[in-house]
Structure formats: C-alpha cells, structure tokens
Design the sequence.
C-alpha cells in the first residue's frame, strides 16, 4: 500500500532524514521506533504531505505522492493522528467526530462510521454532547483516534498515541490499536513504549538520527541486541 524509497527530508536546508526506505502492505501494523529526535514524526508529516522529500519517492497504492498536499493525502485515504491530538475543544464529541468525516459524501457511511466508533469507544457515546475540552488526556486521545476513523482511512498513522497518559490509559489505548489491527486496518504506529510497539507489530523499523538502522518482524527486533540495549534496558 505504501512504499517509501530512499527519501531525504530537510529542515531549514539541513537534511534530517537520510535515505530512509520502508513499506507497508495492506492490513499490516508496522511500528517505527527510535529515540526522541530520530525523525519519526518528520517521516509521518512527509507522508501526510505537510513536508516534501528533497530526494527519493513516496508511493501510495502505486501512485507517486511525493509532492502531494495534505488535502490530497486525506482524499486518498491517509489519516494522520498527531501527538497533540488537535481536537476542537469548544465543540461536542459528536461535532468533533462528524468533522472527521468531512471528506466523505455518503451520509449512510458517515452514520455507519459513527456507530462503529461509538461501539469501539463506549465512553464517547455516553458523552457525545459533552465539549471535547472538558475531557481528560486519555479521553481526548480516544476522541482523536475515533475522529480519524470517521474518515474511513486506508492508512491510519498514529504518532505517539500513549504520550502523556497514565499507565492504565496507555494499556487501554494500545489495546484499541491492537483491536483495530485485528480488524484489518492498515496502521503505521510511532510509539514511545518500544516493547509494546514491537509486540503489536507485524513488522517494524528502528530509526536513529534520521536513518533506518534495523528492520524485521516485531518478534525479531525484540530479540535484537541493538533494541535490547538502546530501548529495553537489557
């Protein structure tokens, strides 16, 4: 579904991503792990169209999207849920969710998606008239994921979904990611909890200072000496 081929990305004229390559097949959950500053979020923003590679190519469903805009990416079915969540705090839960479906024209599909996310996150249905800004961090993260799902994404990109959450809520959010994967959603996951990210992943990539230094199945990388030493404290 997605093929990233030797991309270079610059900030202020300086390369921060160096010839990174990876791919995601339909129905896979692929994790991307690495220390802060490794370039993980930059790569997601480049796929989304907010940044553009200065070298290399990005293909989505066999079409070159290297120079596409964010709106083009959304229309193609790429949904990015950033660390900051960016919910509309003055709006109700349901208003936030319906805004997530703005690219869909089929009203029946919108209602179907609404029922789906309410089933996935019962608390959102219970509080559908409540303003998003009154939610806790964990509840806002659930709302952000649900809003992303309202667009019927072909590729769902999650950037640090557990960031800043209490341990109990981290478990709940990652269980939702696991369930989405089991239901066949194609997911690119960037996650600070490296062990959990690799346990969830079909395949994964390790980034260091803007370069891919290792790749393999989640299970293979959990056994990697590099990952054990750098991220797992073993």
Sequence:
């Amino acid at each position: 579904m997605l093929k990233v081929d030797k991309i270079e990305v610059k900030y202020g004229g300086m390369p921060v991503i160096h010839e990174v390559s990876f791919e995601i097949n339909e129905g896979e959950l692929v994790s991307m792990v690495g220390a802060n500053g490794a370039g993980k979020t930059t790569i997601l923003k480049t796929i989304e169209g907010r940044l553009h590679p200065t070298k290399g190519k990005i293909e989505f469903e066999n079409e070159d999207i290297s120079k596409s805009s964010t709106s083009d990416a959304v229309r193609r079915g790429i949904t990015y849920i950033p660390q900051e969540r960016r919910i509309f705090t003055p709006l109700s839960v349901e208003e936030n969710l319906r805004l997530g479906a703005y690219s869909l024209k089929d009203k029946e599909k919108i209602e179907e998606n609404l029922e789906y996310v309410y089933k996935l996150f019962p608390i959102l249905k219970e509080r559908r008239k409540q303003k998003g800004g009154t939610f806790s961090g964990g509840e806002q993260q659930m709302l952000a994921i649900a809003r992303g799902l309202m667009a019927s994404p072909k590729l769902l990109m999650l950037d640090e979904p557990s960031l800043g959450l209490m341990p109990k809520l981290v478990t709940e959010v990652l269980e939702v990611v696991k369930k989405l994967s089991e239901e066949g959603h194609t997911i690119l996951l960037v996650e600070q909890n490296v062990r959990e990210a690799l346990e969830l992943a079909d395949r994964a990539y390790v980034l260091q200072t803007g370069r891919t230094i290792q790749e393999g199945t989640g299970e293979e990388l959990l056994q990697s000496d590099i990952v054990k030493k750098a991220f797992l404290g073993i």
Q: What stands out?
A: The radius of gyration is 17 Å. The chain has ten helices and ten strands.
